[in-house]
Amino acid sequence: MKEKANASNYIIIALIIIILLSLAAHNITLRNDFYFDDSHILINNSSIRSLKNIPRYFYDISTSSCDYNNYQYRPLVTLSFALNYAVCKLQPFGYHLVNLIIHIICGLLIFLIIRRITNDSQKNLSEKSLLIGTIIATIFFVVTPENVETINYCSARSSSIATLFYLLGFFTYIYVKGKNWVKYGLVFMCMIFGLMAKDIAGTLPLLLIFYEYWFGDKQKSKRLKILWLLFLSIILLYFLRGFLVVGGERMTTQFSGNIFEKIATQSRAHLHYIRQFIFPNDFSIDPIGFGFSDLSDWKSLLSIFALIGFAIFIFSAKKKLPLLTFGLLWYFLALSPSSGIANTTQPINYHRPYIALPGLCLVLAALIIHIEIYLSEKFKEKYVNVGIIWLASVIIIWNIFLSKEQNKIWHDKEKLWETAVKYSPTSGRAHLNLGLEFMSKGKLQQAEKEFKKCIKLWPGYPYGYINMAILQKALGKNEKADVLYRKAYDIWPKHKTIVRYYAKHLTSRGKYYKSINILNNVIDGKPETADFRLLRGKNYYSLKKYDKALSDFQYAGKNLMPKNEAVLYLSLCLDKLGKYDEMHSLLDNWLKTNPNDAKARYNRAYASMKAGKYKQAINEWKDYLNKYPKISAAKVNLKWCEKNVGK
Q1: Is 640 within 8 Å of 609 (Cβ atoms)?
Q2: 341 burial class (0-12, 13-18, 19+ CB within 10 angstroms)?
Q3: Phi and psi at residue 83, in whole multiples of 5°?
Q4: Most buried residue, 265, 453, 643, 647, by CB count within 10 Å?
Q5: What is the DSSP string of 531-549?
């Protein structure tokens, strides 16, 4: 009884240590900003700004992004962002806090999973010694700088949520006892939820099948039948979802590209991630310098032969080294979706191995246990444990230091992109983002230099032209901006972000019909195009086509969040059409929930005055002047109403 109590105390202490070291390594991330795909997935994605859209997340992929080219089926990720937005709007702190909490929970699950596997398979060591190996391996996961990108990059939450349900499903399978239908029902739910975050979670049923082959008892045949059934069900649901929700064309492009080039490149990537876990170094945020390769590249051939060697070792040493071989199997199996099947636009990304690193943690735990067994035959077990703890502490402290330094780089965007340019000098995207940082700080000459490098390196990359156009416009060179915006538009005429920038530019230049024409190419009946309807309505308003403008403003008012700009323009349009009662009703309802909107309060009084309702207008002007006493126009209008009230 006392031993069980002590074991429970050790486990609680271990969990607390994992949480504290996670915070020690990554607390800086809470002060960091949004990055990269966060612009179209979070910042400009109107779908996350209303919880009323939640049902649509599960059947409409256009809610995942405001960029058509980046639509993906990840409803749980979009849901998590919507909940974040409901609590903290677009304050980065809340999003990073959720990312860090998910990371810590993943760490705790890894600890519990490794503990169960090691306890069940190793009887040569005391529970305390097994616990040491388990906690050290888990700490490596929570503090390694290889996971800094996943924690800092909000859009990489897809990887961490998928990993969370991957681990939760595995944890449920090995811990939950009782009726089979409860256990397998919970595991199947975790499989489904994992796929709703990212497709990488689809290997979970295979991992459980291999777990049974590695560690299963004599009754495993029945369990294996159920797991194979779950696996086939997941495959069926995956393809049904693909063709019914994602769309057949988008589904097939996911598997496009040169399969041999992908295998060659990702073989190198798998070994690269292992090296970075053991010897963390040079984590570029845009590692395109890693380069794609084919089967003729000697590095790729060596990597492929190395992976074949790993595969032979895994299956031939299964009985002698079950922990170590199963950990390696986990790593390579979890990474397999990015090995040559999925279409990857970059050779490596450091959020990809997140779901596979628990396998390397199990390998590390196995190695520590084997070292403990070997040394315990020569020395006292407690001395062996002290030595291992001391050595591991030094390495862990070094990893925490590297993670903190990497988090600091993420905190300073200029430094972040200077590092990216340093390690990936041929990346147009890295030069572009460094230029954006220079431009935001008023370093316009340096920004122009980086934009030119981007365009030279990647002449088909529209964002290079877009941002150079923004810079030229800021310098008053509108003609140059016209040409640059047009080049970006010609490269990708259906890209909504490009259309948005180009249309706004044309509107600001008074080219209203041109702006309307390009907006018509992207406007459809979906709420996600409400901001384009608002912009088109402004063009119609400037052309004095108030009926058409009214229709667009009404649509934008129903579907945009926030609505204040749409409500303002809608009221102005109603004024031009002489619909003063309708204008007053609109603004009166708006002010019930937005009482501090000064323009709406002014225009409401103006609507009453124009409708000839002078008594009502007098009260509203007085109410307005109580809040804004220095507005002379309101004073003039009040006197005019008082003069005409009796007429």
Answers
A1: yes
A2: middle
A3: -65, -40
A4: 265
A5: HHHHHHHHHHHHTT-HHHH
Confidence (pLDDT) at 78: 95
Q: Are 209 and 191 a contacting pair, CB within 8 Å?
A: no
Nearest-CA neighbor of 216 among 231, 230, 203, 226? Answer: 226
What distance in Å separates the CA atoms of residue 26 and residue 408, rounded to the nearest whole number? 10
Longest CA span, the chain:
109
pLDDT digits (tens, 9 = 90+) for 493-544: 888 889 999 999 999 999 999 999 999 988 887 777 888 999 999 999 999 9
pTM of the model: 0.81
* Residue among 400, 396, 286, 301 nearest 351 (CA): 286
Rounded CA gap, 437 and 415, in Å? 9
> φ and ψ at 223, to 5 degrees?
-65, -40
**Quick one: CATH architecture of 578-647?**
Alpha Horseshoe (1.25)
Angstrom distance (rounded) from CA 596 to CA 231: 56
Other C-beta atoms closer than 10 Å to the C-beta of 235 total 12
DSSP 8-class letter at 412:
S
Measured CA to CA, the distance from residue 122 to residue 481 in angstroms comes to: 68
- Range of lowest pLDDT (252-261, 276-285, 356-365, 523-532): 252-261
203-227 residue pLDDT tens: 999 999 999 999 988 788 888 999 9
Measured distance CA(478)–CA(474) in Å, rounded: 9
Residue of 557, 585, 581, 561 lying closest to 569 (CA atoms)? 557
pLDDT tier at 245, thresholds 50, 70, 90: confident
Asked if residue 519 lies in contact with residue 503, where contact means CB atoms within 8 angstroms, the answer is yes
Tell me the C-alpha to C-alpha distance, in Å, between residue 169 and each of 101, 114, 161, 325, 626. Answer: 18, 14, 12, 21, 61
Please calculate the CA angle 121-122-124 and round it to the nearest 5 degrees: 155
2-26 and 92-121 are packed helices; what angle lies between their axes, rounded to 10 degrees? 140
Contact 257, 340 (CB under 8 A): no
pLDDT digits (tens, 9 = 90+) for 249-262: 555 555 555 677 77
Six token digits for residue 121: 């398979």
Token match 């390696």: residue?
Answer: 328
| Sign of the torsion angle spanned by Cα atoms 213, 219, 224, 230 | negative
Highest mean pLDDT among 252-256, 418-422, 444-448: 444-448
Cα–Cα distance for residue pair 87/391, rounded to 1 Å: 43
Q: Where are the domains of the chain?
A: 2-34+90-407, 578-647
Cis before 562? omega within 30:
yes
Q: How far apart are CA 120 and CA 128, in angstroms?
A: 14
Residue 294's pLDDT band, with cuts at 50, 70 and 90, is low
Q: Could you give the count of Cα atoms lying within 13 Å of 413 in the half-sphere of its Cβ? A: 18
